[in-house]
Structure formats: structure tokens, C-alpha cells
Amino acid sequence: MNETLKTILAEAMHLGREGRFTEATALIQRGLHLTQPLPEQRESHPSAGDPDRCPVVEADFEVIEDIGRTGGRSIHGHFTHGIEARDYRVYVPAGADDRPRPLILMLHGCQQDAEDFARLTRLDPLADELGFIVLYPTQPRTANATGCWNWFLPEHRCADQGEAAWLIALTQAIATRYRADPHHIHVAGLSAGGAMALTLAATQPALFRSVGVHSGLPHGLAQDQLSALTLMHQGPTAVSGGRTSMGGIGVPVIVFQGDADLRVNPANASGIIEQALSGVPEARSGLDASGVERKTGRAPGGLGYTRTRYPAADGSIRAELWMVQGGGHAWFGGDPAASFAEPRGPDASREMVRFFLEHSAP
After folding, report:
1. Per-residue pLDDT, 13
2. Are 197 and 121 in contact (CB under 8 A)?
3. Which of 3, 57, 299, 356 could form a disulfide with 186 if both were Cys (CB 3.0 to 4.6 A apart)?
């Protein structure tokens, strides 16, 4: 944790003890880049789980065919669920037919949008190569001033309200519209998007069969902006008293994390792995057993890494952790023309897709 962030956190805590909560929140917003209206400024809204009060509507589809040389289709749309409404982009690979295909929901990080994230991760070319559909929603600046998914607010982590409910409803609608394989739907994200991806997997394991978290945070530990800042820069034990399971994650998890990340403490990656193994005794007992597979290597672009795989009793991989040496807060193997790219690292996109395609419902 750098000195600037230490100073911000200490001052915010001091203001909070004095009861100056508005000033403390403003200070945290500037330091954390998670600007969100104060509780008294947010409008109350009905639960998105009430079908009479929160209808689902699809609108404003624009279809663009024959993108580039591949012939894949980039489809832009707008989706409303309850009071939540956002834009999204879908990429359907070239040569699509009626055969059900895997669907991957990709959640961008702060200061990004769907187009930037698609460019960064290069998932569209991978979709053409391997035959899956990619869904990229965009978080508007009206919902968060820096475009972050509000993973740290409890009202956006429930399957029946807020952003989580909107993302779940969007995924289901797109899966139906483009005939995705319902047994092969996965979710991944970067930073705030990675934290929200983990939340979706934890709350809807019947929908999302596996999850990829790049430079993200454990599920359910942060409850507000102050605890989010603490979690990001000090790690799980600073906000949980050593407790990271929070009920566990019900699906397989792959995690990428740089050990030199100054925005997200690398200890969060271990917290995510603990959540992935929680509730799976045969996997959890193997934390220090010979069944755990560890491999060191170096990406063709230059950064070294350690890959650790945690098997379940049936031999499948329950969790996989890539710790990248010297890696910062950026997508490994990402397109340098996009924001938050580290092209020297291992190819996180290809490895995540490989992991996803290995995991589907029976």
C-alpha cells in the first residue's frame, strides 16, 4: 500500500470517528475512484425480483455484419431490467449455426467500457477460433462516475436487485436470443469487473458454470467504500478478521494476479482461492497435498509466473491461480492499444477460455 493511500485511509477513518461522514466519503471517492452517490442521494427502488413492478424489456438493437475479415457479427443493444438500463455489445463468431455455443460474459474494469475491454482482451478473435459467443456490458458513468461496477455495495450483489440482477437477466436474455448452450455459460472480469464476476458466480452457480477473476477481489467482504478501499490495498484479513470463505464460491475459479499490483493487494488472489475451495472438503484438504500442481514458467513476452492448480476428488480442477512476477494492475497478454494492458505476461484470455471450455454442466 503506497504512502498516498495510507494517508487517505487514515484521514478518512479520522473524519469518520468525528462523525464527518460526508467528508470521509468524498475523500475515499477521490482516492478509490469508486465515486457513487451517497446513500441519501440514491433513490429507493422496488426489487427487480417482482415481475409486476420490474418488467424485462429489450430495445435498440443495431446489428453490424461482416466485421473485419472474419465475418463475425458485432451486435450493439440496450437492455432494461426493472429500473436498471445499460448498453451492451455481443460478438457472435463467424460461421455461427444453430448448434448451441458457449457464452462468456465479460465485465470491464473501472475507466473502461465494452469496446475498450473487447480490444484489451482480444476475445473476439478467440471467439472466431474456438466458437463461443462473447457478451460485453457497459457500466454507464451515471451509475458510477468512473465506470466501475458497484461490487462493494450490498444492494448490487443480490440476484433479485441492482446491478447483479441486471447482469443475470441480460445474460439469460442473450443466451436465449443467440441460442447459447445453457450448460456452458461463464463469466470473467478485470478488477471491479472481476469482483462483480465472482459475485455473479457465487449468487447464480446454476447459471454460471465457472468464473475468471483478473486482479479482482473476494466476494462479499466489502460492505461500503471504506471497506472496499481497505480490502483493495490491505487484503482480506484487514476487513474480515481472517475469515475469507463467506460461504464459498459454488463453481470452479481461475485467477490471474500480478505480485507487483499497487492497486489490488495480491493477497486478495489467495482470498479468492480460499473461497473457491471452501465447502469442497476434498479440494480444501489438498491445499498442501501432493495433488496440488505447481508449475513455474515464463511467458514468451517476458514475465515469469507460477501456476497452481487445485484438483477436486474427481480429478477436475476446482481452482487455478496464476501469480505473475512483476505484474501490475493490467490484463496479461492484453492489446497494448487498450487501457490496462500488460502484453508481456502470459495470455490470460486464452488460458481463461481454455479453463471455461473444460467446465460445463454434466
Report:
1. 57
2. no
3. 356
Q: Evaluate whether 107 touches 88 at the Cβ level (below 8 Å).
A: no
Q: What is the mean pLDDT of residues 178-197?
A: 96
Using an 8 Å Cβ cutoff, are 314 and 289 in contact?
no
Q: What SS3 class is residue 315?
A: coil
* 74 close to 125: Cβ distance less than 8 angstroms: no
What are the grid coordinates assigned to 70, written together?
472474419
pLDDT tens-digit readout, 127-146 = 999 999 999 999 999 999 99
Question: Which residues, in sequence order, are CB contacts of 312 under 8 Å at separation 6+?
Answer: 280, 282, 283, 318
Pinpoint the alpha helices (H) of the chain. Answer: 3-17, 21-32, 114-121, 123-130, 162-177, 192-203, 225-234, 237-240, 267-277, 281-284, 348-357
Least confident of 22-26, 148-152, 306-310, 354-358: 22-26
Instruction: With H, G, I as helix, E, B as strand and everything else as coil, classify residue 353.
Output: helix
Judged by DSSP in three states, 183 sits in strand
Q: Which amino acid is at 347?
A: D
State the cell numbers at 52.
Answer: 409486476
Which of 279, 253, 114, 250 has the alpha carbon at shortest distance from 187?
A: 253
Helix 3-17 / helix 21-32 crossing angle, nearest 10 deg: 160
The gap between the terminal CA atoms of the chain, to the nearest Å, is 43
- Read off the pLDDT band of 27 (50, 70, 90): low
Residue 228, helix vs strand vs coil:
helix
**1-5, 64-68, 228-232: segment of lowest average pLDDT:** 64-68
Give 40's contacts (C-beta < 8 A, 6+ positions apart): none
Q: What is the pLDDT of residue 64?
A: 46
The answer to whether the Cα torsion of 114, 115, 120, 123 is positive or negative is positive
